[in-house]
Amino acid sequence: PGSLSTLIGYITGPKAEQPVGIRVVEPPPGTRQYQRGSMYGVVDLAGDHPDRDVIADHLLTVMQRTYYTAKGSQSQVMIEAVGRSQQALHEFNLRHPDSGMRAGVLCSALLNGRLMVVTSGSAFALMRVSDKVQMFPSELRTENEPSSNPDEPVEIFRQQLGRDDVLFVGGGSWLSSVPIKSL
């Protein structure tokens, strides 16, 4: 089969504002990053801090930098990217002990038609592959459960994708707004 093309869509509020905590990187052919494929990241922050948007953006930058510079297999690099994002949040919480920020972190990548997803905390993915819908991880955590432990285990999902397959990635906060069945 030929190479896959992606169509990115964001679900936003009534003003079509740019969603916070989402990063899409689809490097152009011929670049060093292209060898690693496309990266789709989610950081879903819970906790009370006035700079949540800036913190989420920083965690996504840590994820992206790690994904495109770390050495190792695809799964090793993705686990490291999620781990470093969680570590950066842990370090933030040490500097701001009253903020108590927690994060669901998801790093997904598409390389040669193969999707890999690594999650930690409340972030999750839904995939429609052929006529089947799969959720990853299969046991969802709610956004209120603590997840700022930098040593928290991550989970890995792998799937070969076809032309009409669909991927939804989001954080646990979605589940307080929309039932999982509707998504």
Entry keywords:
five-stranded antiparallel beta sheet, 2 helices, alpha+beta, 28% strand, three-stranded antiparallel beta sheet, 183 residues
Q: What would you note in describing this structure?
A:
The protein has helices at about 50-70, 75-95, and strands at about 20-25, 40-45, 100-110, 115-120, 125-130, 130-135, 155-160, 165-170. It is of the alpha+beta class and about 180 residues long. Strands 1-2-3-4-7 form a 5-stranded antiparallel sheet, with helices on one face. Strands 6-5-8 form a 3-stranded antiparallel sheet, with no helix packed on it. β5 (about 125-130) and β6 (about 130-135) form a beta hairpin. α1 (about 50-70) packs antiparallel against α2 (about 75-95). The longest helix is centred in the middle third of the chain and has 22 residues, at about 75-95. The protein is globular. About 30% of the residues are buried. Residues about 145-150 have low confidence and may be disordered.
Set down the secondary structure blueprint.
Blueprint: E1 22-25, E2 38-46, H1 52-69, H2 74-95, E3 102-111, E4 114-120, E5 124-129, E6 132-136, E7 155-160, E8 166-170
Antiparallel strand pairs: 1-2, 2-3, 3-4, 4-7, 5-6, 5-8
Helix pairs in contact: 1-2
Mean pLDDT over the residues: 82
| Helical/strand content category | alpha+beta
Rg over CA atoms, rounded to whole Å, is: 16 Å
* Proportion of strand residues: 25-35%
Widest sheet: strand ordering = 1-2-3-4-7
Helicity, as a percent range: 10-25%
Helices, by number, come to 2
Instruction: Name the helix and strand elements from N-terminus to C-terminus, one letter apiece.
Output: EEHHEEEEEE
Overall shape: globular
Using DSSP, what is the number of strands? 8
Low-confidence stretches: 143-148
Largest sheet: 5 strands, antiparallel
Distance between the termini: 29 Å
